[in-house]
Design brief:
Oligomer: heterodimer
Distance between the termini of chain B: 74 Å
Distance between the termini of chain A: 33 Å
Structural class of chain A: mainly alpha
Strand order of the largest sheet of chain A: 1-2
Largest sheet of chain B: 3 strands, antiparallel
Structural class of chain B: alpha+beta
Shape of chain A: globular
Number of strands of chain A: 2
Largest interface: A-B, 22 and 22 residues
Order of helices and strands of chain A: HEHEHH
Number of strands of chain B: 7
Chain lengths: 103, 190
C-alpha cells in the first residue's frame, strides 16, 4: 500500500472472512502523513470495521490501528507483542472454527 | 577575544589549522549576526517540504541531489536552505536554475504509473473524492462525473478507499490485487 489511506474496510473484512484472527493496520504518526491525512482516514475506517465486527459477533478488538515512525523498531515489536497477546486472549476467529467444523 | 589596544582593537583567536592562538590588530571589528529561518512552516505544510530542526528547507540528498527538494519539481537555493553568503547563494541559485531547466527542456515527462483512475460508468458524482483528496485533484468534468488528472495525482489511494461506489481504482494497488494478496498471505499461514 502506498499509504494507510488506501486501506479499505473490505480489505480488513476479507482477511477475517479468510480466517485471520486479527488485523493490525500500522500507519505513520498522526500529523506526519506524507499525504496529509491518510492515516487519520485509516483510523476512521478501522473504527468502522470494528463496529461491523462487533455487530457480526467476531469482536471489534480483533482489528487495531497503530501509529509508528519508520525508525521505531522496538515500538513496532512492542505493538506486535501487544496485538498477539490480545488475540491470544480472544482466541481463534469464529469464522475459522466454523469453516473447520464444516470441513 | 577582542581587547582595546593603542591603535585599534586586538583580536585573539585560536586557528584550528595552525593549532595555535593568533593575535590580529584591527581598526574595526564586525560580527556576523546570526540568521534564523522565518515563515517556512506554512509553505512546507502546503507543498510538503522537509525542514531541518532549525526550520530551513532540507534538500532531498546533501550530496546526490543538493538543490532538489524531495517533492518533484521543487528546487531550493539561498538562505531558504541555510545561512550562507551572497556568493554561495548565487552559486546555488545557478544550480537550482540548471536543475529546473533539465526538467523543462524535456518533451515528455515520465509520470508514476501509480495513479487513481475513475470508472465513469460507476461514478455517482457524490463529490466524496473531490473532498477527500489531499491535493484537490479530482474534478467533476463536463460529463458530470469525477475525473482525475494523472499528471497531478500523487497516488496515495485515499479517494479509492473513500469512494462509496468503488468507482475509483489505484493502478498497481487495485482492490482485486490487494484481495488476492490478502488471500495468498493467509493461505500461507492458515
Amino acid at each position: 500500500m502506498p499509504c494507510t489511506g488506501k486501506v479499505d474496510v473490505i480489505h480488513i473484512m476479507r482477511s477475517f472472512e479468510k480466517g485471520a484472527d486479527g488485523v493490525a493496520v500500522v500507519g505513520c504518526l498522526e500529523g506526519e502523513c506524507h499525504f496529509n491525512a491518510g492515516n487519520l482516514m485509516a483510523r476512521r475506517r478501522v473504527e468502522q470495521a470494528q463496529k461491523i465486527l462487533d455487530t457480526v459477533g467476531i469482536g471489534g478488538e480483533r482489528a487495531q490501528m497503530y501509529n509508528l515512525s519508520s525508525s521505531e523498531g522496538p515500538r513496532f515489536a512492542q505493538y506486535a507483542t501487544e496485538m498477539t497477546e490480545k488475540i491470544k486472549e480472544l482466541g481463534p476467529n469464529p469464522i475459522r472454527i466454523a469453516q473447520n467444523k464444516a470441513a | 577575544m577582542a581587547e582595546a589596544a593603542k591603535d585599534g582593537i586586538e583580536v585573539t583567536f585560536t586557528d584550528h589549522v595552525l593549532n595555535r592562538k593568533l593575535s590580529v590588530s584591527t581598526d574595526l571589528l564586525v560580527l556576523s549576526a546570526g540568521m534564523e529561518a522565518e515563515d517556512t512552516e506554512e509553505l512546507s505544510s502546503i507543498v510538503k517540504l522537509a525542514r531541518t530542526p532549525e526550520g530551513y528547507f532540507m534538500e532531498a540528498h546533501v550530496k546526490l541531489r543538493p538543490v532538489d527538494m524531495a517533492t518533484e519539481g521543487i528546487f531550493v537555493c539561498g538562505t531558504a536552505h541555510s545561512p550562507k553568503l551572497i556568493s554561495e547563494s548565487i552559486a546555488q541559485a545557478y544550480a537550482a536554475a540548471s536543475r529546473a531547466v533539465t526538467f523543462l527542456a524535456q518533451d515528455h515527462l515520465t509520470l508514476s504509473a501509480v495513479t487513481a483512475q475513475v470508472e465513469a460508468d460507476k461514478c455517482a458524482s457524490c463529490l466524496i473524492c473531490v473532498r477527500s483528496c489531499p491535493y484537490d485533484v479530482p474534478k467533476i468534468n463536463a460529463d458530470g462525473v469525477s475525473e482525475i488528472d494523472e499528471a497531478l495525482c500523487h497516488g496515495c489511494g485515499i479517494c479509492t478507499a473513500e469512494c462509496p461506489a468503488k468507482a475509483i481504482q489505484l493502478n498497481w494497488y487495485e482492490d482485486d490485487q490487494i484481495i488476492c494478496k490478502v488471500d495468498a498471505l493467509l493461505e500461507g499461514v492458515l
